[in-house]
Amino acid sequence: MLVKTSGIPVIPTIFDDFFRDWSSSNFSRTNTTLPAVNIKEDDEQFVVKVAVPGMDKKDFNINLDNNILTIQSEKEVENNDESENYTRKEYSYQSFRRSFTLPKNVVDSDKIEANYVNGELQIIIPKLEIAKPKPVKLIEVN
User: What is the pTM of this model?
Assistant: First the structure.
């Protein structure tokens, strides 16, 4: 931003945002286009954690189709001004879609759970009993 040195203070106006270059702006509050995802696997399950602050439980659509886990979210927020003579009216729209391929014949799809707490979506994907590692079997020699 250029500053005039004439001694007259520079006062930002509501039109400053209108004339700025929007082509390089990212409208996401987190300055990212996709949320961060952590996936952890242990002997019993997969745990998928997605950082998505500012969403509601109802904003998510999660499905598993042919071993592909898809997480989608869409949220639109509009700041309504009841007066007809508004100078500025803003709204935001956030959406994302992430897909992950899970190993075949490993996931117990009937027991998948999802929770959303404090801006983090957590999906617990249990493994089938046959996919869990078996303890080492000792074979006695006769």
Answer: 0.65
* Cα dihedral value 63, 52, 119, 26, nearest 10: -160
| Tens digit of each residue's pLDDT, the chain (142 residues) | 344 444 555 555 544 544 444 444 434 444 446 888 999 999 999 999 999 988 889 999 999 998 899 999 988 777 666 666 666 667 777 888 999 998 888 899 999 999 999 999 999 999 998 888 888 889 999 8
How many CA atoms does the CB half-sphere of 83 hold within 13 Å? 4
In this structure, what are the phi and psi dihedrals at residue 24, rounded to the nearest 5 degrees? -100, 10
Structural contact between residues 27 and 39, judged by C-beta atoms closer than 8 angstroms: no
